[in-house]
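Here we describe the complex-level prediction in full. Unlike the single-chain runs in Section 2.1, the two entities below were treated as one system.
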Amino acid sequence: MDEKQASAAHGRRSEFWRGVRDTLPLVIGAIPFGIIFGTLSTKAGLSVAGTMGMSLFVFAGSAQFIAMGLVGAGTAWPLIVLTTFVVNFRHLLYTATLLPDLKRLPRRWQILLAFGLTDETFAVAVGRWRQPDSNLHKHWYQFGSMLFMYANWNACTAIGLVAGRVLSDVGGWGLDFAMVAAFIGMVLPYLKDKPNYIAVLVAGASAVLFHGLPHQLGLIVAAIAGIVAGVVTETLMARGGISNASTVGEE
Amino acid sequence: MQTLFLVAGMALVTFSIRYILLPLSGRLRFSDGMQRALRYVPPSVLTAIIVPAALMPDGRTLSLSWTNPYLVGALLTVLIGWFSKHLLVTILGGMVGFAVWQWVLTLI
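The structure predicted for the assembly as a whole is:
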């Protein structure tokens, strides 16, 4: 290995470990989610293989929680897949954001990094890509971040699966409430402005209103209602008045 | 078999969303409206799950009562989250609150 190769290898390693280090707080935050997912999923009726398979192959925390909830409610699998599409559709925006950087990478790198483009790794990696230095190994930073998240997520799922077997009556401990608590914790940071409040209020009210629809379709209807309400509110505010309702149709 | 379809379907859908723009590359541009709409996806979807879970624990009937531990627990979680601004504290606090309230209800 000549000197140039040696320094390139060093650059890759240091980027990788920087990515790992910067992702640590998010990994800690994901630990209860992973364990709770593993603990509750078998209670919801998902098999051990299905639970582990989701963490290994889907690798999308909120979608996995929602899928678990839907399995527990007896939802047909095509609708759970459709819900996964709706829930994860936001990731399209992540890829769009990173497109200028990722499109220069070889195909195998694109596939690898796309697989691990979770909310957490996106949030960390976008900061590194935006730094002005022309380091050629920034993709190793993102790889370090995703690998740490991935290893942690799967380890926690496995721990949860074991814990769920040992502790027979976990439901009575409030663990079946954990998903509600976790989702509330995830929604609260969004409540920073009026459009988000309106979106959440409309989504929540619609969810109760349309709850009777078959196959959990009410969830998708309610989510779309919330999204539309948020966009409409934002548009009206930008045009200088909530009261100016006649402009809604232009959106 | 159902589980295999479920996991494979979810994996395919999730990977496709995260990957599809890369081979299509450059020429694509999201409209402003689309970009804004995507930002409301996480809070809307999550809320659409939370609210029925808290208000209709049996999956059918509205239970707007302090004897509904899911509702009381959810309100407690919101309060804790609002003041702590800390995800871990919010989740654990909410779970403890729920468990305690469930226990209190068995005493009444």
